[in-house]
Automatic annotation (TrEMBL), chain A:
Binds 1 FAD per dimer. Residues 3-189 form the Electron transfer flavoprotein alpha/beta-subunit N-terminal domain. This is Electron transfer flavoprotein subunit alpha/FixB family protein. GO terms for biological process: fatty acid beta-oxidation using acyl-CoA dehydrogenase. Keywords: Electron transport, FAD, Flavoprotein, Transport. It comes from the Bacteria. FAD binds at R207, G263, I264, S265, G266, A267, I268, Q269, H270, N284. Belongs to the ETF alpha-subunit/FixB family. The keyword Ubl conjugation does not apply. It holds the Pfam family ETF. InterPro entries: DHS-like_NAD/FAD-binding_dom (IPR029035), ETF_a/b_N (IPR014730), ETF_a/FixB (IPR001308), ETF_asu_C (IPR014731), Rossmann-like_a/b/a_fold (IPR014729). GO terms for molecular function: electron transfer activity; flavin adenine dinucleotide binding. Its cofactor is FAD.
From TrEMBL, chain B:
Belongs to the ETF beta-subunit/FixA family. InterPro entries: ETF_a/b_N (IPR014730), ETF_b (IPR012255), ETF_beta_N (IPR033948), Rossmann-like_a/b/a_fold (IPR014729). The keyword Electron transport applies. Residues 23-212 form the Electron transfer flavoprotein alpha/beta-subunit N-terminal domain. It holds the Pfam family ETF. Keywords: Electron transport, Transport. SUPFAM superfamilies: Adenine nucleotide alpha hydrolases-like (SSF52402). PANTHER family: ELECTRON TRANSFER FLAVOPROTEIN BETA-SUBUNIT, ELECTRON TRANSFER FLAVOPROTEIN SUBUNIT BETA. This is Electron transfer flavoprotein subunit beta. Gene3D superfamilies: HUPs.
Amino acid sequence: MSVLVYTESENGKFKKSAQEAASYAYKVAQDMGTTVSAVCFGVEDTSALGNYGVSKVLKVQADSLKAFNAKAYASAIAGAVKKEGVKVVVLSSSTDSKYLGGLLSGMLKAGYVPNVVAAPDSVSPLVVKRMAFSNKGFAHTEITTDIKILGVSNNAFGVHENKSALTEENFSPSLEEGIFSTKSVNVDKVAGEVTIADADIVVSAGRGLKGPENWEMIEDLAKVLGAATACSKPVSDMGWRPHGEHVGQTGKPVASNLYIAIGISGAIQHLAGVSASKVKVVINTDPEAPFFKAADYGIVGDAFEVVPKLIEKLKEFKAQNA
Amino acid sequence: MKILVCISNVPDTTSKINFTADQTKFDTTGVQFVINPNDEFGLTRAMWFKEKQGATVHVATVGGPGVEPTMRKALAIGADEGIRINAEPTDGFFVASQLAEVIKNGGYDLIIAGRESIDYNGGMVPGIIAALLDIHFVNTCIGLEIEGNKVKAVREIDGGKETLETSLPLIIGGQKGLVEESDLRIPNMRGIMMARQKKLNVVEPVEAIHAMSDKTFDKPAPKGPVKLVDADNVGELVNLLHSEAKVI
Ligand SMILES: Cc1cc2nc3c(=O)[nH]c(=O)nc-3n(C[C@H](O)[C@H](O)[C@H](O)COP(=O)(O)OP(=O)(O)OC[C@H]3O[C@@H](n4cnc5c(N)ncnc54)[C@H](O)[C@@H]3O)c2cc1C
Ligand SMILES: Nc1ncnc2c1ncn2[C@@H]1O[C@H](COP(=O)(O)O)[C@@H](O)[C@H]1O
């Protein structure tokens, strides 16, 4: 009757989202009086999971399952659910986890609540608080099916250390023929760059920057902070920046610790997608820009003067605190 | 090729969100409803398949009579026929079960849904349909090309994109990128007139489970005022982010 967490990895290492999902699963398991099992794909050394309250890990090592394939992964996880008699499955909010959420819900006839932002209100019945209306509201939702699936919002519950004794088991899910019929033929991903989904800090710029040639300072600022870069919708619509950087209600959601908005007015659709970020900073020439109402810190000023100074001050700060 | 576009009827992106006094329902007073933006991108891509490859395009919505203006708009944009499943869309599993039934009976080759509805941000309906019908599924789809039975799809991944090959029947969870913002169409007079003549079939729901229910709602706590730092004193911002906000 355990809680199962899908712990995502990249290049054989668990992602931060996996640590957060495991921390959440541990909280749910404690409330239910049970333990946490994890399932992972292509990870050799799983010992790190013992820091986040996982008691048992099902290791999938098949070569065919090293790279993400939604249908195959969902089937494998569903297999683990049946094998372990799992009642609650915990996922993260990564793009891959959200891909799996619906599939698993259909396969297991299990209610799925994504974007969960806090520990459960109660576990019997299971009621959780989740984001709705693109962060303009929250719903407290009860799942009424026997098996239940939760998707934990990025950065909302946090990573919590809980030491546990970890046992390992190799798990070879039985997969139907044809399960790999949707095939990956190419992955186009810049190696070593912080992604918006995983970043603690996101530096974002809008139409106030005037043109794509002015993004160098934004990239420099992101580099000093170890941040991901993002942009407003018109900036990606005009082709100044790639579509993948567009954040907001119709773009990528941002839930970082720090969000810096430069030359972005703060339209309601933009704010809806970034307001889950903990601390927001705005730099804008117009003191009436709506973003100032949504921000924690602000500078009324010209980005072309403020940003280079900010980069300089951050470099000094880093040198002092190194 | 027969295409079904699943349309969800959502509050306009500029809507202020309020809940009823007892906090148990979304208050629709004064709210303008529109085609879910992700579905509008999908519908526009479907129009391309219609015009360039001779596809037939139907749209389906699970909802009460109140969703018909939104469906008429989809017909005015160019869909051939509409199907309204006459039930309140109370939860994603129920909605997906209803749409799965329509898909099964309609013999569709391609089903276009959105990555998520911008109201409850469920992001689950296309995945559930894919599992219930055991058809191919590509989520966060930003590119789609079809030749005969063969499909080449691009999906957004964290930090980049992935190209996939698969085949029909297929369901996608689409988003911007399927078409560009500038490709979106505002219905013209002729489209609106023609939409009035098009069939909008109403079907009754089938028996299906409800997997969840929203008990109460609340709004984010109001924000305190912004702390302004002088543009000539940028170092102060660094100090505040370090010692007060503790984010660097
Ligand atoms: C259905 C729909 C969905 C949408 N979804 C999204 C979404 O997901 N994400 C999104 O971002 N938008 C979205 N939008 C668009 C949104 O309404 C705004 O148009 C957009 O966010 C504005 O982008 P911006 O702030 O970069 O540009 P602008 O609104 O033009 O703002 C530019 C800002 O830069 C400031 N500025 C100018 N010069 C300088 C300078 N030298 N230094 C500093 N500041 C300067 C200006 O004062 C201004 O505030 C959506 C719109 C619709 C209708
Ligand atoms: N009531 C509905 N009627 C028809 N399609 C829907 C409905 N709700 C959701 N969908 C489809 O499923 C997608 C994802 O919605 P959701 O899972 O609710 O976030 C939407 O973009 C629509 O394509």
